[in-house]
Write a structure and sequence with these properties.
This is DHS-like NAD/FAD-binding domain-containing protein. By secondary structure, this protein is of the alpha/beta class. The protein has two domains: 177 residues, Rossmann fold, CATH 3.40.50.1220; 102 residues, SIR2/SIRT2 'Small Domain', CATH 3.30.1600. It is 34% helix and 16% strand. It has eleven helices and nine strands. The protein has a six-stranded parallel β-sheet, with helices on both faces. A three-stranded antiparallel β-sheet has the order 5-4-6. α5 packs across α7, α5 packs parallel to α11 and α9 runs parallel beside α10. It is globular and about 60 Å long. The structure holds ligand BJW and zinc ion. The site of ligand BJW has 36 residues, from loops.
Length: 294
Protein backbone atom coordinates (compact mmCIF):
# COMPACT_ATOMS: atom_id res chain seq x y z
CA UNK A 1 0.00 0.00 0.00
CA UNK A 2 1.39 3.43 -0.99
CA UNK A 3 2.08 5.74 1.95
CA UNK A 4 1.91 9.52 1.66
CA UNK A 5 4.56 11.97 2.80
CA UNK A 6 5.45 12.14 6.49
CA UNK A 7 4.25 15.06 8.59
CA UNK A 8 6.65 14.35 11.46
CA UNK A 9 8.43 17.55 12.50
CA UNK A 10 10.81 15.58 14.68
CA UNK A 11 11.89 13.28 11.85
CA UNK A 12 12.27 16.22 9.44
CA UNK A 13 14.45 18.10 11.94
CA UNK A 14 16.77 15.08 12.10
CA UNK A 15 17.09 15.13 8.30
CA UNK A 16 17.83 18.88 8.36
CA UNK A 17 20.54 18.34 10.97
CA UNK A 18 22.32 15.74 8.89
CA UNK A 19 21.96 17.44 5.48
CA UNK A 20 24.98 18.92 3.74
CA UNK A 21 23.82 20.61 0.55
CA UNK A 22 20.46 22.22 1.04
CA UNK A 23 18.25 24.04 -1.44
CA UNK A 24 14.99 25.92 -1.05
CA UNK A 25 12.83 26.11 -4.19
CA UNK A 26 10.43 28.99 -3.64
CA UNK A 27 7.34 30.35 -5.33
CA UNK A 28 4.70 33.03 -4.90
CA UNK A 29 3.25 31.51 -1.69
CA UNK A 30 6.46 32.58 0.09
CA UNK A 31 5.47 36.23 -0.35
CA UNK A 32 1.71 35.75 0.22
CA UNK A 33 1.90 36.87 3.88
CA UNK A 34 3.62 40.05 2.66
CA UNK A 35 0.53 40.91 0.62
CA UNK A 36 1.97 39.95 -2.79
CA UNK A 37 -0.64 38.08 -4.86
CA UNK A 38 0.13 34.56 -6.08
CA UNK A 39 -0.61 33.46 -9.67
CA UNK A 40 -2.84 30.40 -9.75
CA UNK A 41 -4.69 29.83 -6.48
CA UNK A 42 -7.78 31.78 -5.32
CA UNK A 43 -7.13 35.51 -5.79
CA UNK A 44 -4.08 34.69 -7.95
CA UNK A 45 -3.06 37.06 -10.77
CA UNK A 46 -3.67 34.51 -13.56
CA UNK A 47 -7.25 34.07 -12.30
CA UNK A 48 -7.90 37.76 -12.83
CA UNK A 49 -5.62 38.60 -15.78
CA UNK A 50 -4.74 36.57 -18.92
CA UNK A 51 -1.10 35.38 -18.63
CA UNK A 52 -0.75 35.14 -22.40
CA UNK A 53 -1.71 38.82 -22.80
CA UNK A 54 0.77 40.00 -20.16
CA UNK A 55 3.65 37.60 -19.51
CA UNK A 56 4.95 36.64 -22.97
CA UNK A 57 7.32 38.43 -25.37
CA UNK A 58 4.49 38.44 -27.92
CA UNK A 59 2.19 40.28 -25.49
CA UNK A 60 4.82 42.99 -24.96
CA UNK A 61 5.43 43.36 -28.71
CA UNK A 62 1.69 43.69 -29.31
CA UNK A 63 0.72 45.97 -26.43
CA UNK A 64 3.66 47.38 -24.40
CA UNK A 65 1.33 49.97 -22.82
CA UNK A 66 -0.92 47.30 -21.29
CA UNK A 67 2.04 45.15 -20.15
CA UNK A 68 3.81 48.13 -18.56
CA UNK A 69 0.65 49.10 -16.67
CA UNK A 70 0.43 45.56 -15.25
CA UNK A 71 4.09 45.61 -14.16
CA UNK A 72 3.82 49.14 -12.79
CA UNK A 73 0.96 47.91 -10.56
CA UNK A 74 3.13 44.96 -9.43
CA UNK A 75 6.14 47.23 -8.75
CA UNK A 76 4.06 49.56 -6.60
CA UNK A 77 2.69 46.61 -4.60
CA UNK A 78 6.14 45.09 -4.05
CA UNK A 79 7.58 48.46 -3.04
CA UNK A 80 5.07 48.75 -0.18
CA UNK A 81 5.59 45.16 1.02
CA UNK A 82 7.88 43.91 3.79
CA UNK A 83 9.59 40.51 4.08
CA UNK A 84 7.62 38.09 6.27
CA UNK A 85 8.70 35.46 8.81
CA UNK A 86 9.18 32.83 6.08
CA UNK A 87 11.61 35.11 4.17
CA UNK A 88 13.45 35.73 7.46
CA UNK A 89 13.73 32.00 8.23
CA UNK A 90 15.19 31.35 4.79
CA UNK A 91 17.52 34.34 5.20
CA UNK A 92 18.89 32.68 8.34
CA UNK A 93 20.01 29.81 6.11
CA UNK A 94 21.89 32.28 3.88
CA UNK A 95 24.06 33.52 6.74
CA UNK A 96 26.86 31.06 7.53
CA UNK A 97 26.81 31.69 11.27
CA UNK A 98 23.04 31.04 11.67
CA UNK A 99 23.00 28.22 9.09
CA UNK A 100 25.39 26.32 11.39
CA UNK A 101 22.80 26.40 14.19
CA UNK A 102 19.98 25.07 12.04
CA UNK A 103 21.99 22.63 9.90
CA UNK A 104 25.25 21.83 11.73
CA UNK A 105 26.54 19.68 8.84
CA UNK A 106 25.69 22.11 6.05
CA UNK A 107 28.32 22.73 3.40
CA UNK A 108 26.14 24.84 1.13
CA UNK A 109 22.77 26.53 1.02
CA UNK A 110 21.02 28.02 -2.02
CA UNK A 111 17.61 29.63 -2.40
CA UNK A 112 16.31 29.13 -5.93
CA UNK A 113 13.39 31.52 -6.13
CA UNK A 114 10.87 32.04 -8.91
CA UNK A 115 9.77 35.26 -7.23
CA UNK A 116 10.62 38.62 -8.76
CA UNK A 117 9.64 40.86 -5.81
CA UNK A 118 13.12 41.14 -4.23
CA UNK A 119 11.77 40.33 -0.74
CA UNK A 120 14.24 37.47 -0.12
CA UNK A 121 17.17 39.79 -0.78
CA UNK A 122 15.67 42.46 1.46
CA UNK A 123 15.18 39.85 4.23
CA UNK A 124 18.84 38.88 3.99
CA UNK A 125 19.93 42.54 4.17
CA UNK A 126 17.71 43.13 7.22
CA UNK A 127 18.96 40.01 9.00
CA UNK A 128 22.61 40.79 8.30
CA UNK A 129 22.20 44.31 9.68
CA UNK A 130 20.36 43.10 12.79
CA UNK A 131 22.95 40.40 13.53
CA UNK A 132 25.83 42.83 12.99
CA UNK A 133 24.29 45.43 15.32
CA UNK A 134 23.56 42.87 18.06
CA UNK A 135 27.15 41.60 17.92
CA UNK A 136 26.03 38.03 18.70
CA UNK A 137 28.64 36.68 16.32
CA UNK A 138 32.21 37.88 15.86
CA UNK A 139 31.49 38.30 12.18
CA UNK A 140 28.43 37.85 9.99
CA UNK A 141 29.03 36.08 6.69
CA UNK A 142 26.06 36.93 4.51
CA UNK A 143 26.07 35.16 1.18
CA UNK A 144 24.01 37.13 -1.37
CA UNK A 145 25.15 34.68 -4.08
CA UNK A 146 23.11 32.04 -2.25
CA UNK A 147 19.95 33.65 -3.68
CA UNK A 148 19.21 32.83 -7.32
CA UNK A 149 16.32 34.82 -8.82
CA UNK A 150 15.66 32.58 -11.80
CA UNK A 151 12.66 34.55 -13.15
CA UNK A 152 14.44 37.90 -12.95
CA UNK A 153 13.53 41.00 -10.99
CA UNK A 154 10.54 43.32 -11.01
CA UNK A 155 12.82 46.32 -10.40
CA UNK A 156 15.18 45.57 -13.31
CA UNK A 157 14.68 46.99 -16.77
CA UNK A 158 16.14 45.78 -20.07
CA UNK A 159 16.51 48.04 -23.10
CA UNK A 160 14.97 46.54 -26.24
CA UNK A 161 17.52 48.42 -28.37
CA UNK A 162 20.93 48.23 -26.60
CA UNK A 163 20.07 45.32 -24.20
CA UNK A 164 21.37 47.34 -21.22
CA UNK A 165 19.99 45.91 -17.95
CA UNK A 166 19.83 47.94 -14.79
CA UNK A 167 17.99 48.23 -11.49
CA UNK A 168 15.36 50.98 -11.48
CA UNK A 169 13.43 51.68 -8.26
CA UNK A 170 11.75 54.90 -9.48
CA UNK A 171 8.12 55.34 -8.45
CA UNK A 172 6.46 55.76 -10.83
CA UNK A 173 8.97 54.46 -13.35
CA UNK A 174 7.66 57.12 -15.78
CA UNK A 175 5.14 59.94 -15.47
CA UNK A 176 2.57 58.39 -17.85
CA UNK A 177 2.17 55.31 -15.62
CA UNK A 178 1.40 57.30 -12.48
CA UNK A 179 -2.01 56.30 -11.06
CA UNK A 180 -2.65 53.56 -13.66
CA UNK A 181 -2.19 50.88 -10.97
CA UNK A 182 -5.68 51.75 -9.68
CA UNK A 183 -7.21 51.23 -13.15
CA UNK A 184 -5.45 47.86 -13.52
CA UNK A 185 -6.55 46.72 -10.04
CA UNK A 186 -10.17 47.61 -10.85
CA UNK A 187 -9.84 45.91 -14.27
CA UNK A 188 -11.20 49.03 -15.95
CA UNK A 189 -10.31 49.97 -19.55
CA UNK A 190 -6.67 51.07 -19.31
CA UNK A 191 -5.34 54.09 -21.26
CA UNK A 192 -3.32 53.46 -24.43
CA UNK A 193 -0.03 55.14 -23.52
CA UNK A 194 2.02 56.18 -26.58
CA UNK A 195 5.35 54.36 -26.98
CA UNK A 196 7.30 57.59 -26.52
CA UNK A 197 5.78 58.04 -23.01
CA UNK A 198 6.62 54.51 -21.79
CA UNK A 199 9.90 53.91 -19.88
CA UNK A 200 12.86 54.70 -22.18
CA UNK A 201 16.58 53.87 -21.97
CA UNK A 202 18.82 56.58 -20.55
CA UNK A 203 22.07 55.15 -21.90
CA UNK A 204 23.96 57.72 -24.01
CA UNK A 205 22.49 57.99 -27.56
CA UNK A 206 19.99 55.17 -27.01
CA UNK A 207 16.48 56.12 -25.87
CA UNK A 208 15.17 52.62 -26.74
CA UNK A 209 12.00 51.17 -25.24
CA UNK A 210 12.57 49.48 -21.86
CA UNK A 211 10.89 46.25 -20.80
CA UNK A 212 10.52 44.77 -17.30
CA UNK A 213 13.51 42.57 -16.35
CA UNK A 214 11.45 39.47 -15.62
CA UNK A 215 11.36 36.09 -17.39
CA UNK A 216 8.19 35.58 -19.41
CA UNK A 217 6.77 32.31 -20.74
CA UNK A 218 8.86 30.98 -23.67
CA UNK A 219 11.94 32.82 -22.39
CA UNK A 220 14.92 31.04 -20.87
CA UNK A 221 15.17 31.48 -17.08
CA UNK A 222 18.43 32.82 -15.59
CA UNK A 223 21.44 30.88 -14.23
CA UNK A 224 20.19 27.49 -15.49
CA UNK A 225 23.62 25.86 -15.61
CA UNK A 226 24.51 27.00 -12.11
CA UNK A 227 21.11 25.80 -10.85
CA UNK A 228 21.59 22.38 -12.50
CA UNK A 229 24.91 21.89 -10.72
CA UNK A 230 23.44 22.91 -7.36
CA UNK A 231 20.38 20.68 -7.80
CA UNK A 232 22.57 17.72 -8.76
CA UNK A 233 24.51 17.85 -5.51
CA UNK A 234 21.58 18.75 -3.20
CA UNK A 235 20.69 16.17 -0.55
CA UNK A 236 17.72 18.19 0.79
CA UNK A 237 15.18 20.19 -1.23
CA UNK A 238 12.69 22.32 0.69
CA UNK A 239 9.87 23.37 -1.65
CA UNK A 240 8.04 26.48 -0.39
CA UNK A 241 4.83 28.06 -1.71
CA UNK A 242 4.94 26.98 -5.32
CA UNK A 243 2.26 25.15 -7.32
CA UNK A 244 5.15 23.31 -9.06
CA UNK A 245 3.48 23.76 -12.43
CA UNK A 246 6.01 25.98 -14.20
CA UNK A 247 9.11 24.41 -15.73
CA UNK A 248 12.02 24.13 -15.36
CA UNK A 249 11.59 25.03 -11.62
CA UNK A 250 8.85 22.39 -11.20
CA UNK A 251 11.34 19.62 -12.06
CA UNK A 252 14.07 20.39 -9.51
CA UNK A 253 12.57 18.61 -6.49
CA UNK A 254 11.96 15.54 -8.63
CA UNK A 255 15.64 15.57 -9.68
CA UNK A 256 16.76 15.74 -6.03
CA UNK A 257 14.47 12.79 -5.17
CA UNK A 258 15.77 10.82 -8.16
CA UNK A 259 19.36 10.95 -6.96
CA UNK A 260 18.37 9.93 -3.43
CA UNK A 261 17.88 13.33 -1.72
CA UNK A 262 15.02 14.24 0.59
CA UNK A 263 12.14 16.48 -0.51
CA UNK A 264 10.00 18.47 1.95
CA UNK A 265 7.05 20.54 0.75
CA UNK A 266 5.69 23.57 2.64
CA UNK A 267 2.43 24.76 1.08
CA UNK A 268 -0.92 26.15 2.12
CA UNK A 269 -2.60 23.35 0.24
CA UNK A 270 -1.88 20.17 -1.73
CA UNK A 271 0.22 20.91 -4.85
CA UNK A 272 1.52 19.08 -7.94
CA UNK A 273 3.95 16.32 -7.09
CA UNK A 274 3.73 16.61 -3.31
CA UNK A 275 2.43 13.04 -2.97
CA UNK A 276 5.95 11.99 -3.98
CA UNK A 277 7.56 14.25 -1.34
CA UNK A 278 9.12 12.71 1.77
CA UNK A 279 7.68 15.39 4.08
CA UNK A 280 4.64 17.61 3.74
CA UNK A 281 3.80 20.56 5.99
CA UNK A 282 0.50 22.20 5.14
CA UNK A 283 -0.32 25.72 6.33
CA UNK A 284 0.84 29.31 5.77
CA UNK A 285 4.63 29.10 5.37
CA UNK A 286 5.12 32.30 7.39
CA UNK A 287 3.98 30.14 10.32
CA UNK A 288 5.17 26.63 9.43
CA UNK A 289 8.71 27.48 8.28
CA UNK A 290 9.78 29.37 11.44
CA UNK A 291 8.00 26.81 13.68
CA UNK A 292 9.66 23.83 12.08
CA UNK A 293 13.05 25.17 10.95
CA UNK A 294 14.13 27.96 13.25
C1 LIG B 1 1.13 29.23 0.00
C2 LIG B 1 0.68 30.34 0.67
C3 LIG B 1 1.19 30.51 1.94
C4 LIG B 1 -0.30 30.38 -1.18
N1 LIG B 1 2.05 29.64 2.40
N2 LIG B 1 1.98 28.34 0.38
C5 LIG B 1 4.22 22.03 -21.33
C6 LIG B 1 4.90 21.15 -20.50
C7 LIG B 1 6.07 21.54 -19.83
C8 LIG B 1 6.56 22.83 -19.97
C9 LIG B 1 5.89 23.69 -20.80
C10 LIG B 1 4.74 23.29 -21.48
N3 LIG B 1 4.28 24.36 -22.19
C11 LIG B 1 5.11 25.41 -21.98
C12 LIG B 1 6.09 25.01 -21.13
C13 LIG B 1 7.19 25.83 -20.60
C14 LIG B 1 6.70 26.88 -19.64
C15 LIG B 1 5.85 26.18 -18.58
O1 LIG B 1 6.33 25.59 -17.65
N4 LIG B 1 4.53 26.29 -18.69
C16 LIG B 1 3.64 25.62 -17.75
C17 LIG B 1 2.53 26.56 -17.34
C18 LIG B 1 3.17 24.34 -18.38
N5 LIG B 1 7.89 27.45 -19.03
C19 LIG B 1 8.52 28.47 -19.58
O2 LIG B 1 8.11 29.02 -20.61
C20 LIG B 1 9.80 28.90 -18.93
N6 LIG B 1 10.83 28.89 -19.88
C21 LIG B 1 11.21 27.78 -20.52
O3 LIG B 1 10.69 26.70 -20.33
O4 LIG B 1 12.23 27.99 -21.38
C22 LIG B 1 12.65 26.91 -22.20
C23 LIG B 1 13.81 26.16 -21.60
C24 LIG B 1 14.00 26.06 -20.25
C25 LIG B 1 15.05 25.34 -19.75
C26 LIG B 1 15.92 24.73 -20.60
C27 LIG B 1 15.74 24.85 -21.97
C28 LIG B 1 14.67 25.57 -22.46
C29 LIG B 1 9.68 30.32 -18.39
C30 LIG B 1 8.70 30.41 -17.30
C31 LIG B 1 8.54 31.88 -16.87
C32 LIG B 1 7.41 32.02 -15.86
N7 LIG B 1 7.12 33.40 -15.71
C33 LIG B 1 6.23 33.80 -14.64
C34 LIG B 1 6.05 35.33 -14.70
C35 LIG B 1 7.31 35.99 -14.17
C36 LIG B 1 7.20 37.48 -14.19
C37 LIG B 1 6.08 37.97 -13.35
O5 LIG B 1 6.11 37.83 -12.11
O6 LIG B 1 5.11 38.50 -13.91
O7 LIG B 1 6.74 33.38 -13.38
S1 LIG B 1 4.62 32.98 -14.71
C38 LIG B 1 4.46 32.78 -12.96
O8 LIG B 1 4.50 31.37 -12.63
C39 LIG B 1 5.73 33.40 -12.36
C40 LIG B 1 6.06 32.42 -11.28
O9 LIG B 1 7.41 32.54 -10.91
C41 LIG B 1 5.71 31.10 -11.89
C42 LIG B 1 5.47 29.99 -10.90
O10 LIG B 1 4.36 30.26 -10.10
P1 LIG B 1 4.37 29.90 -8.55
O11 LIG B 1 5.41 30.70 -7.88
O12 LIG B 1 4.43 28.45 -8.37
O13 LIG B 1 2.97 30.52 -8.07
P2 LIG B 1 1.52 29.83 -8.09
O14 LIG B 1 0.53 30.91 -7.92
O15 LIG B 1 1.34 28.94 -9.24
O16 LIG B 1 1.52 28.93 -6.79
C43 LIG B 1 1.52 29.49 -5.49
C44 LIG B 1 1.51 28.33 -4.49
O17 LIG B 1 1.66 28.90 -3.21
C45 LIG B 1 0.21 27.54 -4.49
O18 LIG B 1 0.54 26.15 -4.52
C46 LIG B 1 -0.45 27.91 -3.16
O19 LIG B 1 -1.14 26.82 -2.57
C47 LIG B 1 0.75 28.29 -2.34
N8 LIG B 1 0.49 29.26 -1.29
N9 LIG B 1 -0.25 31.01 -0.16
C48 LIG B 1 2.43 28.59 1.64
N10 LIG B 1 0.77 31.56 2.68
ZN1 LIG C 1 19.33 51.31 -24.54
Amino acid sequence: MATGPSTSIQAFREVVKSSQNIIVIAGAGLSAASGIPTFRDGGGLWRKYEAKNLATPRAFAKDPSRVWQFYHMRREKARGAEPNAAHMTIAALSVKETLRYICPNAESFTLITQNVDGLSRRALDQLTKTLASKKIFEKVTSEPQSIIEMHGRLFDTICKRCRHREANYNSPICAALEGTEVIVERQEQEPDIPLSDLPRCTQPDCGGLLRPGVVWFEEIPHHLQEIDEIVQKADLAIVVGTSSTVYPAAGYAFEVAEHGGTVAVFNLDRSDGDSEADYLFLGPCAETLPQILA
